[in-house]
């Protein structure tokens, strides 16, 4: 006999930007180092990298604590403007991460809601839409739009509100421990990506439910997150073609061995 119950909604996805969809973490690190050096603060690159993904204000406060320096609010505001200028000078070297366009395209085709939530300000974040082949009206929440940034949950709560979903029914996808801490505070499940430089163990300790190398691997294993494609996918990996078709209770996989050269992971739908 069938049981009557309230079904949970389909999952939605809230994506961080830097290090998650675009390969920009190290450009941000170098930009911060240059901005700090200009005011006489010399910090190792690795120390800066550990704070990338935090709110800019918290980021600066944490680094200053390590140096024993103090800055006024006006000084911190000017430092953030200097970082933005340094970052824009390097932006030509920023690219979309492997599989990012395909992942977002797949979710769109499958009618899965998604949005971008970033600690960056609109001036530096919105140009990334072009890198990802996205329209200007793509749902994106930037630092300018919320009271607090990561590790506070505001960005992800706001992005969920833009989509009209509850954060507890969403996956937050990010590359830093700050993303995953904010996800936990928002009540969402966290998915970690290694493409921002954090290790698997760090991301798992911060609460990642799954950890993938980059958006391409996440797309290849999207069934692990409960997303069911509306059409068959062909996943091309090194040395084989995998045909996946949706079936009740999961995915049925058909393997067809091919003698082709190693190729990067991609996804297409026939």
Describe, in plain words, how this protein is organized in 3D.
The chain has helices at 25-37, 45-49, 56-67, 73-90, 100-109, 122-125, 128-131, 154-163, 177-186, 200-205, 215-220; strands at residues 12-15, 22-23, 95-96, 114-117, 140-141, 170-174, 189-193, 208-212, 233-237, 240-247, 250-257, 266-269. The protein is built from eleven helices and twelve strands. A six-stranded parallel sheet has the order 5-4-1-6-7-8, with helices on both faces. It starts with 11 loop residues before the first strand and ends with a strand. The protein has 270 residues and is an alpha/beta fold. The model is unreliable at 236-270 (pLDDT under 50). It has three domains: 12-23 and 94-225, HAD superfamily/HAD-like (Rossmann fold, 3-Layer(aba) Sandwich); 25-93, Putative phosphatase, domain 2 (DNA polymerase, domain 1, Orthogonal Bundle), CATH 1.10.150; 233-269, no CATH class. Strand 7, helix 10 and strand 8 (208-212) form a beta-alpha-beta unit. Helix 1 packs across helix 4.
